[in-house]
């Protein structure tokens, strides 16, 4: 299954050691995609993630590197042609979600994995919550 990752999923996986998100991120049944913009977002919140997780910045950097090995980082040039369309679909709710929707429009995928309720406004893109994915793998 090919899924676009919302940054919140990665941040949650970094903060909680025994989280469902972290376990799902390492499962080989999924192929994950992330707009490169999201790496900047994660780095912007590194200090807060470190504080909430209790991990040092160095350990956190290693964990991010390990997770990123499992994720295909998609360059901005690939999603840029779909930004305007994505902005119309979700920009009115949260402009930070636009790159994820643009990525979903730009590549073949099975949806976006997010627990962010702003994505619920999308009708043509499947949104998977962590609960949905846990149900999917247990079926």
Quick description:
The protein has one domain: 3-Layer(aba) Sandwich (Rossmann fold). It is 54% helix and 12% strand. It has helices at 7-15, 20-25, 37-44, 46-53, 57-69, 76-79, 83-91, 98-106, 130-138, and strands at 2-5, 31-35, 71-74, 112-113, 127-128.
Overview of the structural elements:
The protein is α/β, with parallel strands linked by helices and 139 residues long. The chain has one domain: 5'-nuclease (Rossmann fold, 3-Layer(aba) Sandwich). The chain is built from nine helices and five strands. It has helices at 7-15, 20-25, 37-44, 46-53, 57-69, 76-79, 83-91, 98-106, 130-138; strands at 2-5, 31-35, 71-74, 112-113, 127-128. Strands 3-2-1-4-5 form a five-stranded parallel sheet. It is globular and about 40 Å long. The two termini are 14 Å apart.
Q: What topology does this entry show?
A:
Elements: E1 2-5, H1 7-15, H2 20-25, E2 31-35, H3 37-44, H4 46-53, H5 57-69, E3 71-74, H6 76-79, H7 83-91, H8 98-106, E4 112-113, E5 127-128, H9 130-138
Parallel strand pairs: 1-2, 1-4, 2-3, 4-5
Helix pairs in contact: 7-8
List keywords for this structure.
Rossmann fold, globular, 139 residues, alpha/beta, five-stranded parallel β-sheet
CATH class: Alpha Beta
Class by SSE composition? alpha/beta
What sequence of helices (H) and strands (E) makes up the elements? EHHEHHHEHHHEEH
Q: Span between N and C termini?
A: 14 Å
Number of helices: 9
The overall number of domains is 1
Which overall shape is indicated by the principal axes computed on the Cα atoms? globular
From the 3D structure, determine the CATH topology.
Rossmann fold
Number of strands: 5
Low-confidence stretches: none
Percent helix range: 40-55%
* Rg for CA atoms: 15 Å
């Amino acid at each position: 299954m090919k899924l676009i990752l919302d940054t919140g999923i990665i941040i949650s996986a970094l903060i909680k050691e025994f989280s469902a998100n972290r376990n799902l991120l390492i499962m080989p049944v999924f192929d994950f995609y992330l707009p490169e913009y999201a790496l900047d977002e994660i780095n912007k919140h590194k200090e807060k993630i470190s504080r909430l997780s209790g991990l040092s910045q160095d350990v956190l950097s290693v964990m991010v590197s390990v997770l990123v090995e499992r994720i295909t980082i998609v360059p901005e040039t690939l999603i840029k042609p779909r930004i305007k369309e994505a902005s119309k679909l979700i920009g009115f709710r949260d402009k930070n979600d636009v790159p994820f929707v643009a990525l979903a429009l730009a590549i073949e995928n099975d949806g976006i994995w997010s627990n962010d309720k702003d994505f619920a406004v999308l009708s043509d893109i499947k949104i998977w919550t962590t609960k949905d994915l846990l149900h999917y793998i247990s079926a």
